[in-house]
Amino acid sequence: MSLNAEQLDFAADLLRTAPTLRDAAAQWHERYPEVRTMHVSATVMRDETAALRFGVRSIYFAMSAGHCRSITQRPEEADALILTEEKAHGNR
């Protein structure tokens, strides 16, 4: 699976406009149910490079090989999105 230009544009729009990441994930799932989304703490992803970033929100591309997931910068390798948001008082 891979992410196409339309999906990347939609992901960027969600990052900028969704009221919450939960809303972003729900809107994504409604439109692209075949591409999984995960919401994790920004702290968990601190050593990774985001594929898309807007303010305190980021999206990382993930790919899977069996049960293992890894981060990729290449949308053509991605089969999932990881959403993060930095909190004002740290990520807990």
List keywords for this structure.
single chain; 92 residues; alpha+beta; five-stranded mixed beta sheet; 2 helices; 26% helix; 29% strand; globular
- Biggest sheet, in brief? 5 strands, mixed
Question: Which structural class is indicated by helix and strand composition?
Answer: alpha+beta
Overall 3D geometry? globular
Q: What is the strand content? A: 25-35%
Mean pLDDT across all amino acids: 91
Order of helices and strands: HHEEEEE
Give the SSE layout.
Elements lengths: L4 H13 L3 H11 L4 E4 L12 E3 L2 E9 L2 E5 L7 E6 L7
Account of the 3D structure:
It is a single chain. The protein has 92 residues and is an alpha+beta fold. The protein is 26% helix and 29% strand. Strands 1, 2, 3, 4 and 5 form a 5-stranded mixed β-sheet that branches.
